[in-house]
Amino acid sequence: MTQTDVRPDQTFRGILGTGIEEGLLLKPVTYQWAMDLYDQAVANTWFPNEIQLGEDLADFERMSADERAALTHLMSYFNPNELLVNKALAFGVYPYVNAAECHLYLAKQMWEEANHCMSFEYVLETFPIDRAAAYESHVTVPSMAAKEEFEVRFIKRMTEQTLDITTTEGKQDFVRNLVAYNVILEGIWFYSGFMVALSFRQRNLLRNFGSLVDWIVRDESLHLKFGMNLVLTVLEENPDVATPEFADEIKQMILDAVEMEEAYNRDLLPNGILGLNADYINTYVKYLADRRLDELGFGAHYGVANPAKWMAAANDTLQLVNFFESTNTSYEVNARQG
Predict the structure, then answer these.
(1) 163, 165, 184, 236: which could join 257 in a potential S-S bond, CB 3.0 to 4.6 Å?
(2) 212, 53 in Cβ contact below 8 A?
(3) Residue 16 bridge partners (DSSP)
(4) Is 223 annotated as a binding residue?
(5) Does 116 carry a binding-site annotation?
(6) Can you say whether the dihedral through the CA atoms of 95, 99, 100, 103 is positive or negative?
(7) Average pLDDT across the chain, whole number
């Protein structure tokens, strides 16, 4: 970056910072990938009621008890966790980023997470689901509560007064939070649930609900792109962050997350449903984890094939550079999908 590229409101210090008076001018744009993602997110704007979920009611009524329980379980998890992501963005990302274009995207992402929450509320309002039981599950089902506890731990680290984003330790905490929410929650756990949700449409059930999930997945793919670009930029601008010990810690976070998701999926489908059981979903979870590990530069750990190739259009959306070895050069908004 040349001095002529510096915004008139600040001396360039990189993407991280907490100065209230910094990042108040948009042009010249420093991080074009953030501006491009904001533009794409605005173009993707949608509203839940544009989809006629009521047309799926007949399907819901003829589903088995296990199938209806699985859908309720998904709503129990997705609904509060969309709001949890917003807390992570508000407390753990937005305050520590300088660039105005990043703030614009994060504001749009927070609106999208709220829109996703309202989408799942729409599902709860449309189908005869016990809302109180669905709300209660995220604290009473141990596997679901364990995942939430894992994520909350990282928000608390970001909100402690001792966090100093100018230190190596503070920057590592920032990256940990991004990995916990962007890579694990949105990039593995959410996609595992999306696969289950979309599996009904594979059997010609809940087709409109499937369309709603498609729109959510489209948003989440941009969230994943933004978060990964942000991680890569932090690492590029702060080479002190990616120590071998820190890399090992990040990898272990993902492996621990797979174990938590395996337990969750056993509670999601204790008896299995037509064409789907916990082992099938957990193979897909390991495939997703291998994708994320590979994208982060670690290489695959589980070595499993994708059991749900029909989901390729939803989750094979990234062309990433190596997390710990390369600079942020090839990761673009319109990167080749495959």
Answers:
(1) 184
(2) yes
(3) 97
(4) yes
(5) yes
(6) negative
(7) 85
- Which pLDDT score, from 0 to 100, does residue 331 have? 33
pLDDT given for residue 323 in this prediction: 42
Are 179 and 158 contacting, i.e. CB atoms less than 8 angstroms apart?
Answer: no
82 labeled binding residue? yes
113 burial (CB, 10 Å; 0-12 / 13-18 / 19+) is buried
| Residue type at position 322 | N
Q: Where are the alpha helices (DSSP H) in the chain?
A: 32-43, 57-62, 65-92, 100-126, 131-140, 142-159, 168-178, 190-202, 207-237, 244-268, 278-295, 312-315
The catalytic site residues sit at 122
Q: pLDDT tens for residues 170-200?
A: 999 999 999 999 999 999 999 999 999 999 9
Q: What is the DSSP code string of 303-335? A: ----S-GGGHHHH-------TTTS-SSS--TTP
- Tokens for 4, please give them: 């002529």
User: What value, to the nearest 5°, has the Cα angle with vertex 186 and ends 238 and 105?
Assistant: 60
Low-confidence ranges of the chain (pLDDT < 50): 1-4, 7, 10, 315-338
The β-bridge partners of 273 are 276
pLDDT, position 161? 63
Residue 55, marked binder:
no
What the block records as the tokens of 138 is 């995220």
In the chain, the domains with their CATH numbers are 33-315 (1.10.620.20)
DSSP state, 335? Answer: P
